[in-house]
Amino acid sequence: MASRLTIMLVEDNDALREATAMVLRREGHQVLAVPMAEDVDDTPAHAPPDAYVIDLNLPGEDGISLTRRVRAAQPRAIIIMATVRSELADRMQGYATGADAYLQKPVDPEELVAVINACARRLATPPQEPNDQLRLDPRNALVAGPGGSTELTHTEVMLLTALARAPGRRLERWQAMQIVDPEEKGLSTSSLEMRITTVRRKLTSAGASSRPIRAIHGWGYMLCCELQIGD
Q1: Which of 63, 96, 120, 127 could, after both became Cys, cross-link 56 (CB 3.0–4.6 A)?
Q2: Cα separations (Å) of 22 from 26, 135, 182?
Q3: What is the mean pLDDT of residues 142-160?
C-alpha cells in the first residue's frame, strides 16, 4: 500500500462520492470530499492535497478547468480524472490539461487504488535535476546543450518556443500545422512529421535524450526535454 496521502475527491454524485471516499479511507488515506470544483479552494487543509480525484462533469467549473488550475499550482500532485466520457478526444483533452490517469466510470475501486499507489511512488521519488537541459537562443536561431550547439530555421525556433510555453508542453497537430504552414499552403501530415523529425535530430545533436519530442497518437506532440528560452 502507498504511504498515507491527503486526497481531494471532487464528485457531485452524493452516493458515489461517499462510496469512493470510504474506499480511500479504508486504504488509510485522509479524504476531503466535495461536490463542486468551487469547494476545493474553500476546504480547509493543513497543506495542499497530495492527490486529486476529479469528476469531469461538475456543476459550475468543470473538471477540465479544475485540473488545469491544480496542475499549474501543484506540478507534482497526483491528478486522476474519472468520467463516463470514453471518446479518445475526451481522454486526450484530460491528459493535455495535466491528468495522470483518465478512468472511465464506473471505476473499479481496486483499479482506483492501484492507480493512486502507482502515482504515489512518483511522489516518493525526489525530482532529479535534468541532465539534458538545453537552451534555445531565438535571436541567433541556435539550440545549445551538453552536446554542443545546432543552428535552427526560423520556423523551428517558432515551433520549439510554442512547445516550451504550451500548457503541459503539448501542442495539438493543428497548432503545429499553423506554425509550420502559417499561409495554409497545404502542408501534409507526413510533411509535418518530417519537420518534427528534423527538430528531434537537432535537439538530440545538442545533447537531449532520445525522443525529445514525442508524438501523441491522434492528437499532437509533446516536448520531453528541458528547454530554457533565452539568449
Answers
A1: 63
A2: 6, 48, 53
A3: 92
